[in-house]
Amino acid sequence: MTPTDLARSRHIPWLFVAGFAIVFAVNATMIGVAVGSFSGLYTPKPRDRGLHYNEVIAAQQARDALGWRVEPTWQPGSDRLEIAVFDRAGQPLAGAQVAVALVRPAEKGGVLGVAMTAVDIGRHVGHIALPARGNWDVDISIEQGGQRFAQTRRMFLR
Question: Which site in 1, 93, 95, 130 is 20 to 30 Å from 86, CA atoms measured?
Fold first, then answer.
């Protein structure tokens, strides 16, 4: 072995150390960005919701007992959201008040309310200019005759 070979071979372990240090630094940066950008919590008070879980189940069972059916339709050319509401027998639900809110599931941020107008028995229409296309949770609330029905549908809106 020549002296130049020995000088080169002394640097090889340090190259491995430097390589691993770069990998650890990149991983630490990615972990910091991931943890800082999304807390993983969707509801503001998840513990309270968990404590009242039986009430949530009872509300869902009461909703299901109504037998109402909701059919949301998005028309991208006109930025129009249509909600069709049917009763247990499949007939349009008359006299219902419909409220709709759009939420991006992947982002923290505001809720976009959609002003809905009844255009026919059981049909409501609203217009909204979406700030971004993609997956949206469409939160639909219907009230009629003192009964309340709520449902969330995930739709790809473009």
Answer: 130
